[in-house]
Structures are given as C-alpha cells and as structure tokens.
C-alpha cells in the first residue's frame, strides 16, 4: 500500500492511494481513512470539495466519531483514484463521474485489510456481537451505517466488518442509551401546552422536515394537538392509541389528522430535548381506510345548473372561476386584484401549496365574469379579490358554506375540491393533455392528476362507441 503525491488542475496537491498496483478507494471516503489508519498512515489530505456533510444522508459516521476512537482526521478525504487495468482516471469530488469497484479491486481491498493484521468479522459474527439480526447488519453495510469491506461471493457480495467499526457502533448505542436516561419527559399539561406556540413557529420557519408548512396545515395541527392535550394531559404513544381507539373507524380523516399532528409534535419534542425518546416507543401505525374514499365530482350539466341558481354576480364569479380554473380553495381565498391580468387572460397563483407559484389561463367566460364583478365591486390592486359579508377576507370555511348553499338549490353536493375534480375530469374527457392539466393544477406527480379524474365506466363505454 502506498500514497503517491500528485497535483490537480488548480495546483492543489493530493495523494493517490494504491494497493498492490490497483487503486481501491472507490469505496466511501470514511472507509479509505479506516484502511489507511489500519496500515499505519497517520493523515490523509482533506478537501472542502467533499466534506463530511455530503455523507450525512447516508448515515455515515462523522469525523468527530472517528476522533473519539483515536483517529485524528478532520474531514473525509478527497482522493483521486486510478484504475490502472483499464487506463482510466476520474475524481471522487461532487459532480464528477464515479467508477464502480471491479471484482479485482474488491479483492485487493480485502487483501489490504487482511494484511494489515486488523481483526475482521463476517456478517453473522457481527450480528451475534451486536445482538442484531443478519439482515439488519447487511442493511447497515449497504447503507453505510457500519463501515465494511465488500467481498465477492459468487455472483453476490458479502461483507467483512473490521473490529473498529463494531466498536464504533457499540459506542453509538451507548450514547443513545445515555440520552434515554438523561432526558426527563414533560408530564405537566401546562408545559406541553406552552410548547404549542413554539411548535407552530418551528413549522412555519421550516425547522421540521426542512420546509415550511402552510398556514392551513399549522392551523389544523394546532387544533388537534390542543384538543388532545386538554383531554389526556400528556402526549405519548399510550394516550394516542387510546384516542385512536375512541374515534370511529369510518371517520378516517379525523383519525389520520390526529395521528399526523401528534406524531409530528412528539417527534419535535424529542428532537428538541423537551421530552424523552421513550414517548415514541410502541407508536401506533398510521390509520388505514376501511372503505374507499368518497371522491365527489360534478358534471357540466350540474355546473350549469349551479351557475343559473346564483343570486348575484358574487356567487356567479365564485362558481365560474373555481370550475374553469381548477384552483384550490386556499388559492382562491388568497387572490388579490393584482394577481389577475384580464388583458392577457392570466391568473397568477402566488401562494400555492408548499410556497410554489404558477400561472393559470382564464377562459373568455371567466375573464368576462371577473370584469363584471370588478365593475360592481371595485378593488385596489393590493386588496383581496373576494370578501365576506363583514368586508373581511374570505375564509376557506366561508367559501365551503357558500358553495354548499348554492348546491342545495339544485340538489347537488358542491364543494371546492369537487369543482377541482370536475375541472380535471371534464378537460380530460374533451381530449386535453393530462400533462397540461397537471401543470395547471399544480400537481407534483401526474398520478395525482389521474386520481382526480372521475371518469365512470358508462362514460368510457359511450366514448368507445365512437372509436370506429
């Protein structure tokens, strides 16, 4: 094993790491450090191009954990490796192509570790030492949770696990156990209730999950958590199981929202140190539907009947805009006058789901209806487009109630989301591109748009007769 000093294109120096003439560090950088350490090499040059943070998503040990075991490396190494057999060269920096290790490289890496005199264990032996299943140890090796050397085994690959990697896992388990014993769960109801504003702020600032929650999601989570804490006093797996058992199985939405809100709140308390990790032990599984969801939609005839049943231009504008743009109820309520370009017939959605923005075209009928509405209800550019009877911004609940009353006049169940599904179903039936509809609806996945389409078997049969 040897290091060969080299210079890259920018003049920085680095080392080639060779074993028996064939370089074998297409393995993770932490493993290259490990092999170097076992062979008596004290230090490997590091580079900012590939730092330890890029490995955190793979659950690889961090430099601080290596230092605890006596390793003095400050970062994962940036190493240029050469496959001398095929006369090709590449870099392990981010954005560059990697070469997968060949069988010869894997065998040489095994020999390098064996010749270093370090003790190695098979997967079965490591499972027995760590008191884990063989499948668990295998998954750890594949994901990088435990540093191991891949060894060819017929057409498959097995693993050789160095003793230092096992010691590292043992140390991590001790840290987890110490953390369990150090935290004291909050049992006072008032203290957990006091954490709710802090939790809401964390959701809004994107601390949880890496992106901010919508105001509607924060409002729903706050409602269910507050109701739960006032009833049971403390949030843990036992009380959540009891609450889910008390909710009727057919009330799937209530069960799912309760489970989601409490799970997010409890995990946040554990991560921030406000509660013991043991409150998550025995956490119930996510509720499942006992019956298929009731996804209602509306036909063109029903939409025409609702439009005819409107008593004023306000109600007519609500029905036409929702049915001919397919926007969400929250997006509709947040519309401002400056978001509507009647000259170019474009509607700008500036506060969509997950903070996204998009544009939606207006049909001639929708543009004319909006023009008539603005003539009767003049607004300033920054004003909300739709207000309630108290001249305050229209809320989602007020929109739902208004549509319900309009639908009752013609005997249909009208809801903002039903009109959104009607927009998808009607336009797909007219032969319009589902990709265009996906973009206009703001769906991330086209499968979601397909689920919105409520085409019945009778509709498909009637259209099939015209295929000849």
What this model shows, in words?
This protein is mainly alpha-helical. Helices cover 48% and strands 10% of the residues. The protein has 19 helices and eleven strands. The strands form four sheets. The chain has a three-stranded antiparallel sheet with strand order 1-2-3. Helix 4 packs across helix 5, helix 8 packs across helix 10 and helix 17 packs across helix 18. The chain is elongated and about 80 Å long. The termini are far apart. The N terminus is likely disordered.
Would you list the SSEs in sequence order as H and E?
A: EEEHHEEHEHHEEHHHHHHHHEEEHHHHHH
- Fraction of residues in β-strands: 5-15%
Work out the radius of gyration.
31 Å
Residues in helix, %: 40-55%
General form: elongated
Class per helix and strand makeup: mainly alpha
Low-confidence stretches: 1-28, 38-101
Strands of the widest sheet, in order across it, are 1-2-3
Distance between the termini: 74 Å
Total helix count?
19
Based on DSSP secondary structure assignment, what is the total number of beta strands? 11
Overall residue-averaged pLDDT value? 76
The major β-sheet equals: 3 strands, antiparallel
What are its keywords?
468 residues, 3-stranded antiparallel sheet, 19 helices, 10% strand, disordered N terminus
């Amino acid at each position: 094993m040897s290091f060969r000093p080299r210079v890259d294109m920018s003049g920085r120096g680095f080392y080639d790491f060779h074993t028996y003439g064939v370089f074998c560090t297409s393995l993770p950088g932490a493993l290259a450090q490990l092999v170097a350490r076992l062979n008596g090499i004290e230090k490997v040059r590091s580079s900012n191009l590939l730092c330890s943070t890029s490995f955190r998503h793979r659950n690889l040990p961090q430099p601080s954990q290596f230092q605890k075991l006596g390793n003095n490396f400050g970062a994962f190494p940036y190493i240029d490796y050469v496959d001398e057999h095929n006369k090709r060269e590449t870099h392990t920096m981010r954005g560059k192509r990697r070469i997968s290790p060949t069988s010869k490289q894997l065998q040489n890496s095994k020999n390098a570790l064996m010749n270093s005199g370090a003790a190695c264990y098979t997967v079965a032996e490591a499972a027995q030492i760590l008191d884990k299943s063989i499948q668990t140890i295998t998954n750890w090796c594949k994901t990088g949770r435990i540093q191991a050397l891949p060894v060819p085994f017929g057409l498959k690959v097995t693993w050789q696990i160095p003793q230092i990697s096992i010691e590292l896992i043992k140390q991590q388990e001790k840290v987890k156990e110490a953390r369990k014993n150090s935290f004291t769960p909050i049992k006072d109801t008032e203290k957990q209730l006091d954490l709710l504003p802090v939790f809401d702020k964390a959701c809004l600032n994107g601390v949880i999950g890496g992106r901010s929650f919508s105001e509607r999601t924060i409002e729903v989570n706050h409602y269910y958590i507050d109701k739960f804490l006032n009833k049971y006093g403390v949030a843990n797996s036992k009380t959540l199981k009891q609450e889910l058992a008390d909710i009727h199985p057919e009330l799937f939405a209530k069960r799912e929202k309760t489970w989601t809100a409490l799970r997010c709140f409890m995990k946040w308390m554990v991560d921030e140190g406000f509660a013991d990790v043991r409150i998550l032990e025995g956490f119930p599984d996510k509720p499942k539907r006992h019956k298929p969801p009731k996804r209602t939609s509306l036909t063109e005839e029903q939409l025409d009947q609702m439009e005819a049943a409107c008593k004023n231009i306000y109600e007519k504008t609500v029905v036409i805009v929702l049915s001919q743009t397919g926007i969400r109820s929250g997006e509709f309520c947040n519309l401002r006058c400056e978001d509507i370009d009647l000259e170019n017939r474009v509607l700008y959605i500036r506060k969509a789901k997950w903070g996204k923005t998009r544009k939606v075209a207006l049909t001639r009928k929708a543009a004319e209806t909006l023009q008539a509405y603005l003539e009767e209800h003049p607004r300033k550019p920054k004003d909300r487009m739709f207000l309630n009877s108290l001249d305050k911004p229209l809320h989602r609940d007020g929109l739902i109630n208004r549509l319900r009353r309009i639908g009752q006049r013609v005997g249909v169940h009208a809801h903002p989301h039903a009109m959104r599904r009607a927009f998808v179903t009607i336009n797909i039936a007219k032969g319009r591109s589902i990709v265009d509809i996906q973009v206009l609806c703001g769906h991330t996945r086209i499968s979601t748009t397909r689920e919105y389409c409520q085409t019945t078997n009778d509709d498909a049969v009637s259209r099939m007769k015209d295929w000849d």
